[in-house]
From TrEMBL:
<feature type="domain" description="VOC">
    <location>
        <begin position="4"/>
        <end position="121"/>
    </location>
</feature>
<protein>
    <submittedName>
        <fullName>VOC family protein</fullName>
    </submittedName>
</protein>
<dbReference type="InterPro" id="IPR037523">
    <property type="entry name" value="VOC_core"/>
</dbReference>
<dbReference type="InterPro" id="IPR029068">
    <property type="entry name" value="Glyas_Bleomycin-R_OHBP_Dase"/>
</dbReference>
<dbReference type="InterPro" id="IPR004360">
    <property type="entry name" value="Glyas_Fos-R_dOase_dom"/>
</dbReference>
<dbReference type="Pfam" id="PF00903">
    <property type="entry name" value="Glyoxalase"/>
</dbReference>
Amino acid sequence: MAIHFNHTILLARDSKTSADFLADMLGLPAPRRWGPFYMVTTDNDANLDYMDTEDEIVRQHYAFLVGDGEFEAIFNRIRERNLRYWADPGQRKPSETNDHDNGRGVYFEDPNGHLVEIITRAYGSGGWNP
Ligand SMILES: [Fe+2]
């Protein structure tokens, strides 16, 4: 058996709202409740498990490789909802996308400030190297 990334935990103020947001934005099936988590499952069967906390939330970064059509649909949702978005992880290029590796990429935040990235080409696949 090979090694596949399986799950991670994202701390949230409201795990259900957060999981619903991410699933809606990415166009994935509705989150499932399991134990203390609301789980968002990607097409490669990785789970992002939102869990409630009252403690400080340290912002994390999650990137998703998406198809060109999915990128367009997600980016449309970002704009329809008037969400802020950036071309870069440092959030110094607002209201822009990037074309790294001859693809498209953009960053936006989930309700907890976790930085979500969507890209249409894997890092370095087109020769981009920051
Ligand atoms: Fe990234």
